[in-house]
Design a protein that fits this description.
By secondary structure, the chain is mainly α. The chain contains 22 helices and no strands.
């Protein structure tokens, strides 16, 4: 197998001893064992894993807020989808500043700055619940998600740098496996603390209420929204203190950047010319878009398909996240035997098929198809992230920022699906994530054909 072709001027990756797995390269010593982590990285790895769980909690407490705010403020699906626009839009806006922080200081500094911003945003839910305005909540969500963007831009490449490049994708998948632990906690908090506290009054009943009665009702419901976010902020404070007090050696980071000055223009040019990386950014955009669409509108799908209420629908979302959790750990194991790109392509195709089935066959079986889409989603984010960053060398930090900025897909495509819901209904709207999955499949096939299949990867 020949090595990939890197863009002209890009830093060549350091030589490593690769493990005996499908990610092994030509010319490496297949019979030599390799460390999973560099020396001294066990405690830092465990601490950073808590951050993966933390942003999973935040993301999946936020997903039901589309339906929650739609009911509380009597808005359309498109208007309430601004929740995801604010949340994932912040990821897009703050990822590049995070790269500059990581480049100028360190991954640890980026993680602490990100956690600090997220803490401030989560605490803002308290005054937002008092003000009782939709815009205030969007500001709080933007600041919370902006902090998580910085955190994620720092944590993902830090995990990659914690050990040999040969098992970087598996290591990132293992760390990301704890993200669905957080997502399940987030959905549970929503299902247990937020959704049951929504009043059963529909839009017409609320419109008939007097101003004082409506205000009292909203105050009670928004109080339920606020409590888990403020509790989450307290947990983030504890994580911030633990990381701040811990020594986190980053030998790979220092060795990689020794003697290199920052030339952002040249870096950006190299990244844009690297077709493998740039297609990876596109694939990540549609992966996050599909994931956000599937989970955001699970409540609406369940309510439309089987006639349940918000609280009952919330448990189907919880089931989705449990499927995601089990599948993430399972895929880390399977990846030891099957090429990551091939797994990515196969699961993306399955995700597209399940989404189309849900759109065309609404009902209980369609709802369970929506739930099972989460099994397909389980490996996509870290796998795209890991294989897109392979071989970027000194461009890794800004490459990481580009992949996090691709989370903008989670801000834009839910607006499209919300518009489809307003026109054609919640069940048919799942054609939107189905189309997104097909693009992700294309990237898996591209990577498999370009490198894993034996040809040199095009630059």
């Amino acid at each position: 197998m020949s090595r990939r072709t890197l863009p002209k001027g890009a830093a060549q990756p350091r030589s490593h001893v690769w493990p005996r797995c499908p990610e092994a390269r030509e010319g490496e010593h297949m019979n030599q064992p390799t460390r999973f982590l560099h020396a001294g990285m066990k405690l830092p790895f465990m601490l950073i894993v808590t951050c993966f769980a933390a942003w999973g909690i935040a993301a999946n407490m936020t997903d039901p807020l589309v339906q929650v705010f739609s009911k509380i403020f009597s808005m359309s699906a498109l208007q309430s989808s601004l929740v995801q626009f604010a949340y994932y839009g912040a990821y897009f806006c703050l990822a590049l500043p995070a790269a500059f922080i990581n480049r100028r200081y360190s991954y640890k500094t980026g993680i602490l700055v990100g956690l600090g911003c997220a803490i401030a945003g989560a605490f803002l839910f308290y005054p937002a619940s008092i003000a009782m305005t939709y815009g205030f909540f969007l500001v709080a969500l933007f600041l919370l998600a902006g902090g998580l963007s910085i955190l994620e831009t720092s944590a993902n490449p830090f995990v990659i740098a914690m050990g040999p490049e040969g098992n970087a994708t598996r290591r990132l998948n293992l760390a990301q496996a704890f993200n669905p632990v957080g997502t399940n906690i987030g959905v549970f908090l929503s299902a247990a603390l937020i959704l049951p506290n929504l009043n059963t009054a529909d839009a017409d009943a609320r419109a008939a209420m007097g101003a004082d009665a409506l205000r009292a009702l909203r105050a009670e419901e928004l109080q339920a929204v606020m409590v888990p976010y403020v509790g989450f902020a307290v947990v983030l404070v504890a994580i911030w203190i633990a990381i701040a007090l811990s020594r986190m050696p980053t030998p790979s980071e220092r060795e990689l950047e020794a003697g290199h000055e920052l030339h952002f223009g040249a870096t950006l040019k190299r990244l844009l010319k690297n077709r493998h990386y740039s297609f990876g950014v596109v694939a990540q955009f549609f992966n996050v878009a599909a994931q956000t669409c599937v989970w955001t509108f699970t409540l609406q799908y369940a309510m439309a398909a089987i006639g349940t209420d918000e609280a009952g629908a919330g448990w189907y979302l919880q089931a989705s996240l449990l499927v995601f959790l089990v599948s993430r750990f399972a895929m880390v194991w399977v990846m030891g035997f099957v090429r990551p790109a091939l797994l990515l392509a196969g699961l993306a195709l399955a995700g597209a098929g399940l989404a189309l089935y849900a759109a065309l066959v609404p009902g209980l079986s369609g709802l369970w198809a929506v739930v099972m889409i989460s099994a397909c989603l389980s490996l996509m984010f870290p796998t795209i992230y890991g294989i897109a960053l392979e071989g970027l060398g000194e461009d890794t930090k800004f490459g990481s920022a580009g992949l996090v900025m691709a989370i903008l897909g989670g801000a834009l495509l839910p607006l499209v699906q919300g518009a489809v819901i307003d026109v054609a209904g919640a069940t048919f709207s799942y054609v939107v994530p189905a189309a997104a999955f097909l693009i992700v499949m294309g990237y898996g096939l591209f990577d498999f054909a370009a490198v894993r299949g034996g040809a040199a990867r095009p630059a």
